[in-house]
Description:
Helices cover about 25% and strands about 35% of the residues. It is of the alpha+beta class. Strand 5 (about 120-130), helix 5 (about 135-150) and strand 6 form a beta-alpha-beta unit. The N and C termini lie far apart (about 60 Å). The model has no long low-confidence stretch (mean pLDDT about 85).
Amino acid sequence: MQQSSIRNFCIIAHIDHGKSTLADRLLELTGTVLKRDMKAQLLDRMDLEREKGITIKLAPVRMQYKDYELNLIDTPGHVDFSYEVSRSLEACEGALLVVDATQGIQAQTLANVYLAMAAELTIIPVLNKIDLPAADVERVSAEIISLLGCAKEDILHISAKTGQGVDQVLEKVVELVPPPKSSALPETRALIFDSYYDDYRGVILYVRVFDHKIVKNDQIKMMATGVNGIALEVGALKPQMTAGHSLEAGEIGYIVTNLKTTRDAKVGDTVTLTSKPATEQLPGYKDVQPFVYAGFFPESNEFYQELKDAVEKLSLSDSALQFAPENSPVLGFGVRIGFLGLLHMEIVRERLEREYNLELVVTNPSTDYQVSLLSGEELDIKSAAELPDPVKIKEIREPWITGEIVVPQDYIGAVIQLVSGKRGIQKNISYVDERALISFEAPLANLLTDFYDQLKSLTSGYGSFNYELDDYRAEDLVRVDFYVAGEMVSALSIMVHRSESQRIGREVVEKLKEVIPRQNFQVALQAAIGGKFIAREDLSAYRKDVTTGLYGGDVSRKKKVLAKQAKGKKRLKRFGKVDIPSEAFTVMLKRD
């Protein structure tokens, strides 16, 4: 195919604004998929994606329209996968910005627009869901105009569900998106914008070829990881894999390799040929680091090996997943896993439970901390239990994020209050038509548990939130430990700011009192910083009425029996074990 006839574009939008539905209509219109084979969210292959109505893994597809070859990438919209989105944008020359006519511009819309502008893409604004009774075309059009600075007639009005106006989208893509620039470099360079592991074929790369070409059976090399492999098959997705002879410059397609794990071929890496390697990588590659960590434990210790095998299999297809074995006195053996965010964690958890039939206990998610010791040593700790003796610590640094919240103007006060309640600092407020964009900085640990839920309930569901990691800052942080019946449960330990420690300690012991069942003896639930207890709740004992059979007679008979019972309870308290249910380890998630 001539480069002048190729158009590479992607669809960017906030969650649930109709990206995947628009992709379905484009596939239908271009005849890429027959009507009888069509189903909703065709490019979303996972059951989880269909149920939640979100795109988790991006998917490229090649369409023929008139005499043009259109390569579409349907990108994920969630903040956890923003690096994948940025790589997908690098593989394109144009982007369809889809905005819901009922909801208007949201935080993720803004974040993706900035990414598209940074990649210097041609942005085509598309107003979706105009067929709904709640659609406010005039207001949302005004928001798009003030965001992009485009003219009113540049905005396409469509309904992806009914297909109304979708043919105009194809015409605009052909007319406005520039063809790929031809390269003068004789060496091959291709950008990996996604990779996954197939049980039967090995690692499959989704690539955009920038320079020269890749032919079937070529010896290839990943420039960042330095790993060599073979291109066993090359071709395009239509949307099924369709093998071809080669992938030419400007084209988007797939490469089936003989690699055994996606860690060898990461998103953002550059593919070149071993026979004539390129000297310079394509820009923008970075090693994605997880910053949310949680302990995953099997319900019974006999299933530990199954959990370990399942996590290893999952990590073959998800290079962002990092894990290490963990041991807890209460929960036994498990795995501590690092994630890109809370949605990523939820998806991994559901996949482990569904695909591998595992019953899991998951501890409260935490972030990583940088610790400087007085000896000059630097530590990176992933859980509060790893914190060394406070006497040896010089300072503890925690990750901060810069965030943006988009809300209707009526909710500004409530949102600012919410941010400051999380130790956040509000930086700036700007206005996009009737909406306010609040910029702020906050410690990541305070936003991990219930921030998003609180934001949604405060703003009646209208608030949307987007963030990125900023830097690590030294703060007055302490470790709060929790004791059940005098025994410390390290899996419950958390890192908090000293100013919040008493409040959080009290909240958690109250929650533990609700979820831990009563015993035959009194159980003390305590929160402590070092050797100082800061909160306590008591679980009262079950009381069996041992005096039921005693009628009349001297009162000393009753006292004797009760004293015997008290003695037994005292003994139980010394030797009795408290069974801690799995809900106790996620109390932080349900703080309110």
